[in-house]
Known about the structure:
Layout: H1 10-21, H2 25-34, H3 39-66, H4 74-82, H5 84-113, H6 126-143, H7 147-175, H8 178-182, H9 196-202, H10 204-211, H11 216-219, H12 228-252, H13 258-262, H14 268-277, H15 279-313, H16 331-347, H17 354-383, H18 392-427, H19 431-441, H20 448-470
Helix pairs in contact: 1-7, 1-12, 1-15, 2-10, 2-12, 2-14, 3-9, 3-10, 3-12, 3-17, 3-18, 4-5, 4-17, 5-6, 5-15, 5-16, 5-17, 6-15, 6-16, 7-12, 7-14, 7-15, 10-17, 14-15, 15-16, 17-18, 18-20
Amino acid sequence: MDQQTQKLRLNALIALVVGSMIGGGIFSLPQNIAEHAAGGAVLIGWAITAVGMLALAFVFQTLANRKPELDSGVYAYAKAGFGDYMGFSSAWGYWISAWMGNVGYFVLLFSTLGYFIPAFGQGNTPLAIGCASLLLWGVHFLVMRGIKEAAFINQLTTIAKLVPIVMFIVLAGVAFKANIFTMDFWGTQTPALGSVMDQVRNMMLVTVFVFIGIEGASVYSGRAEKRSDVGKATVIGFLGVLALLVMVSVLSLGIMTQPELAKLQNPSMAGVLKHVVGEWGAILISIGLAISLLGALLSWALLCAEILYATARDKTMPAFLKKENANHVPVNALWLTNVMIQVFLLITLVSAGTYTTLIYLASSMILVPYLWSAAYSVLLCVRGETYERASRQRIKDLLVGAVALIYAVWLLYAAGPKYLLLSALLYAPGIFFFAKAKREQGQTLFKPWEKVIFAGVVLAALVAAYALYSGALTL
């Protein structure tokens, strides 16, 4: 197959961004948000998220246009700006975040189907895991047929899953009651929520999870038909998804009170619509969620494989991961990804609270790639690289990059010590892949300052391991 036939147009890139962001998260958003915050804090939290994530979207757009030779988004920016180990860490964290989110999607999918087939339970019964495994390998072999073919199917599922979401927004808008929304507006009658600042901070990882995928078009920049489409797809996809997310969470708080929403089972959007129109509303949302998750699983299967392939092609990952089949699909990267998903699906058989834990951990793993991308954008502006001296555009991009960087640091704070420690535990084993890649090139493993960073990661991982062993830290 000619490589040119694999080029993706603007609509395909937008579908990848939207399809990656709209997975299971939006369907569980009413409960996930209400569990942490009341109406006033929700509005503040979304305002912060909108500014921060929009700044990140513009960062990805700017970098795509100013550094067209960097064809793999989040990973390539970290490596270009801060060296091989930071580039590797971004790729490793992004990859783990992606496939871990997929495990969460599988659990949520079969938990949703449990509404119709009780034997699926909460998505982690033996029958559910068995069916999830069959679906996993079905997606695997579909992607093996080719990037463009899988991307086309993703466009169809992206359109299909928007229908129940739009219907929910219309029906919820009609049923919205301002007096319910303003009831205990700041959460003062629910001490467990904490202060307004606590509420805003605690909802941050939820908002990050529903926006993971904003960099989707950037990851595929090397396969884009037009380079300029990458930035357009990122911003268009972000603005559309932001509008949907805000309306779903805010309208829900005007239909049921914060304590009522917090007690709903996920997918909580089904419970909200059932409250408005009855049983058929829950059925509609459940069907929509199933379609949505299937599309998201496909998007993330593509993204997981692509990020490993790109890093191997650039010699940051071991060479075996850049092997492609006749359809230009990175087969070894795809196999490694899906084997890891399979392993963690089996782990869910004996673990509790898997969906919530997985989405928070997936969110915390993505923070490092986002941080370094924002930092690289700032670095380009400070150096004046690709800019005319003292140009107005340079000052504008510096301000946008600074906002994105501050937001990324804020997210690290919002994640809290638990998820940062667990992230370190997952980052540390990546050294074996990094070391193999360095040996293949006959290069020294670390530069001096990279040793310090790696030592910090190992120390945090040891603390996390001991805390898990002693029971001070739980999954």
